Amino acid sequence: MILRSCGLLACLLLALAPCAAIADDAPRIDALVSPVTVRLRGLSAVSEDIAWASGQAGTVLRSTDAGKSWTVMHVPGAEALDLRDVHGFDGRSAVVMGAGPGDASRVFRTADGGARWTEVLRNPDPAGFFDCIDFDGARGVLLGDPVDGRFRIFRSRDGGRTWVAGIGPKAADGEAAFAASGTCVLLAGGGTLVATGGSRARVHYLPQRFEAKGDWQAIDAAFPEPAPSAGLFSLARRGTDVLAVGGDYRKPAAPAVVASVHAASTIQANAAAGAPGGYRSGIACKRGQDAMCVATGPDASDLLPASCLQPQAKLPACCDPGENALPSVTWIALSGVGYDSVANAGRAFWFSGDGGRLGRLVSPATAADDGCRLRMH
User: Fold this and answer.
1) The pairing of beta strand 282-285 with beta strand 269-271
2) What's the rounded Cα separation, in Å, for the pair 149 and 172?
């Protein structure tokens, strides 16, 4: 059942407690030797040892040894494409997405470690533009910019081998998604979430059981100055909840925007105070409700330590969000080195960005170790 009264849905506000730190114990991003210099916006962490990255000039990278070495591939027929997103299923199978106007937006798949690639989807809309993909097992979703008033949605049930068009959320005039890190769409909480910006920064949510009807819900995220370059850019699951980050990529020093979303059967989004110090294009979280998260952008990266998320008691089903204080988040500056994308698997956070930049962070062994007890100078 979808609740539509009192604005939209049940309220679940999250209070994010202040954290403190010991510099020597704080995780750090280790730079990895990259074999390429093209911008790598696509990133997928399969495990602590296996990761895929993708980017300009049809370039795909794969590491199976924790980033010590990388295999470089160039997808045939995609030499002129910018592969803005990639999803690796294991060390041999992956899907990559090209982002561009019209048929420059395409999807390719490999099942043999990149020896051969098959084109599995080409944008049918001359006015369309693919933005991002996500998978939950064999179930996949692809998000594209609006065409005729609706965001484009394509779905796969077989690990990206075949795709069919679905019903996307209605878009306001000037609303769009951002192909900045391949993480503007997310399969979580038994449904599909979409992060947008432009004229309106919103989180759209569609429960899986309503996919055939396309019965999307939308909640505005507070954003000080709507602009074509601003909004929510990235989504990451944190237990049963989702965090979204964004900002304005043309004003990278302006404070980031963070939204917290509860997406089990209902959704509630709020702008969060204490956000990272600038525009962030990507976010990733370890598994678990109170787990560590990392946000990154072209200029810097930030850490939200584990155990800092302390849920309040659940509020009445029909409450006025205006009566409650917005959640407060204390992020720790992690690095002055920026990346476009971040992805997590196990204890490892992987990073990719401009100039072929690659990085890796290994978090502490236990949640308690990287929690609020850490203190940073």
Assistant:
1) unpaired
2) 7
What are the pLDDT digits (tens) for 269-321?
554 446 788 999 999 999 887 789 999 999 999 998 885 444 432 322 322 33
Per domain, the residue ranges of the chain are 14-313+326-362
Q: Other CB atoms closer than 10 Å to residue 148's CB: what's the count? A: 9
Cα 263 from Cα 207, distance rounded (Å): 9
Q: For the chain, give the longest Cα–Cα distance.
A: 57
- Pairwise CA distance, residues 217 & 330, whole Å: 29
pLDDT, tens digit, for every residue of 50-90?
999 999 999 999 999 999 999 999 999 999 999 999 999 99
Return the closest-CA partner of residue 345 out of 283, 286, 281. 286
What is the assigned CATH class of domain 14-313+326-362?
mainly beta
Pairwise CA distance, residues 285 & 153, whole Å? 25
CB 169 within 8 A of CB 218: yes
> Which structure tokens are listed for 370?
């990287």
**Its pTM surpasses 0.90:** no
Tell me the residue length of the chain. 377
Q: Report the distance separating Cα 113 and Cα 142, nearest Å.
A: 22
In angstroms, the CA 137 to CA 291 distance is 22
* Single-letter amino acid, residue 96: V
The one-letter code for the residue type at 359 is: G
Give CA separation, 269 vs 4, 133, 218, 244, 372, in Å: 15, 22, 10, 9, 24
**Rounded Cα distance, 243 and 220, in Å:** 14
